[in-house]
């Protein structure tokens, strides 16, 4: 499945009692698609996959699929303990999702052969295409990534390590493995999955990973789209203004507290009028002084993008 445009990773809203709020999620997803998202990745990192039980995961994916209404592909998160990852992949298929983003197994530091086996077992449990997420305790060598790419339903590789030198070796290795197979080479997508990925978009594009996930799109789609269009048009001056006026200050604030890569995004969505609720433990909601800083950053970003508040 060919992915294009901004990859939208919606938040998972919780109501006052702490339950998943499907109405708000449906609006959030529908608004993102209407703003021009190229694909929706539901119940993934920004959507607090780590904090959802199996029933909540199914509801989130089902709601996202219904809200997207076939306009763009919908991928669902899976990962953690192998039985849970398999169950999530199966639930995604039953809900009508178009693919799965496979996140790392829980806690353990495993050899690469075990990580490849983990992917194979999830792939065997669903007919959906899989994008493998490299981050934390799931790190692949070029040879390992090539082995993943030979699994028939693995169609993408998302990097969350930020090791550009490694990606410079992984991408040619995967392409060589696919070009050397029998029959036509399948479509295979690489993308940047770092937090606030716009800041590193140029570096990833230079090694062949032009796509990126945009958490910013969750709360200031105007800024995310302005950046994406400026890059596509080769408007380097506007890219620099958006980076210096919004994205880099946001990264500085994000780095103040672990987990702010999600908590600030959720706070930003609340700030823009979407009743998202807070984050679930072990994440924490932003401190009031950080919320005040975020409000200034958002205002500056909207001004730089030429959009109103």
Summarize the structure.
By secondary structure, the chain is α/β, with parallel strands linked by helices. It has 11 helices and 8 strands.
For the sheet with most strands, the description reads: 8 strands, parallel, barrel
Query: What best-fitting shape do the alpha-carbon axes yield?
Result: globular
- What value does the Rg take, in angstroms? 18 Å
The SS-based structural class is: alpha/beta
Mean pLDDT: 95
Strand content: 5-15%
* C-alpha end-to-end distance: 36 Å
User: H/E element string?
Assistant: EHEHEHEHEHEHEHEHHHH
> Unreliable stretches, pLDDT < 50, 5 or more residues?
none
* Percent range of helical residues: 40-55%
Number-wise, the strands total: 8
Which strands sit side by side, in order, in the main sheet? 1-2-3-4-5-6-7-8
Number of helices: 11
What do these coordinates show?
48% of the residues lie in helices and 11% in strands. The protein has helices at residues 22-34, 54-68, 82-95, 112-124, 142-149, 164-179, 201-206, 221-233, 236-254, 260-271, 288-305, and strands at residues 7-8, 39-42, 74-78, 99-102, 130-134, 154-159, 189-192, 211-214. It is globular and about 50 Å long. The model has no long low-confidence stretch (mean pLDDT 95).
Question: What is the topological layout?
Answer:
Blueprint: E1 7-8, H1 22-34, E2 39-42, H2 54-68, E3 74-78, H3 82-95, E4 99-102, H4 112-124, E5 130-134, H5 142-149, E6 154-159, H6 164-179, E7 189-192, H7 201-206, E8 211-214, H8 221-233, H9 236-254, H10 260-271, H11 288-305
Parallel strand pairs: 1-2, 1-8, 2-3, 3-4, 4-5, 5-6, 6-7, 7-8
């Amino acid at each position: 499945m060919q992915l294009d445009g901004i990859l939208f990773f919606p938040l998972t809203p919780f109501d006052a009692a702490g339950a998943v709020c499907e109405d708000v999620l449906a609006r959030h997803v529908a608004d993102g698609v209407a703003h021009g998202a190229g694909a929706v990745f539901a119940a993934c990192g920004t959507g607090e996959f780590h904090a959802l039980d199996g029933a909540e995961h199914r509801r989130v994916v089902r709601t996202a699929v219904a809200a997207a209404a076939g306009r763009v592909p919908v991928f669902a998160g899976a990962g953690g303990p192998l039985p849970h990852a398999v169950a999530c992949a199966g639930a995604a298929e039953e809900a009508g999702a178009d693919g799965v983003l496979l996140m790392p197994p829980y806690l353990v530091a495993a050899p690469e052969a075990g990580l490849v086996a983990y992917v194979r077992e999830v792939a065997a449990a669903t007919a959906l295409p899989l994008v493998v997420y490299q981050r934390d305790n799931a790190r692949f060598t070029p040879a390992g990534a090539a082995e993943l790419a030979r699994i028939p339903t693995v169609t993408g590789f998302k990097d969350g390590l930020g090791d550009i030198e490694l990606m410079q070796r992984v991408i040619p290795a995967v392409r060589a493995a696919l070009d050397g197979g029998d029959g036509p080479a399948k479509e295979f997508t690489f993308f940047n999955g770092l937090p606030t990925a716009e800041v590193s978009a140029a570096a990833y594009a230079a090694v062949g990973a032009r796509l990126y996930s945009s958490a910013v799109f969750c709360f200031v789609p105007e800024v995310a789209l302005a950046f994406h269009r400026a890059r596509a048009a080769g408007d380097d001056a506007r890219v620099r203004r958006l980076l210096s006026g919004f994205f880099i200050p946001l990264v500085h604030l994000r780095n103040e507290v672990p987990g702010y890569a999600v908590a600030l995004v959720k706070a930003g969505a609340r700030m823009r009028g979407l009743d998202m609720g807070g984050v679930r433990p072990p994440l924490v909601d932003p401190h009031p002084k950080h919320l005040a800083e975020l409000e200034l950053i958002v205002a500056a970003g909207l001004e730089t993008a030429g959009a109103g508040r």
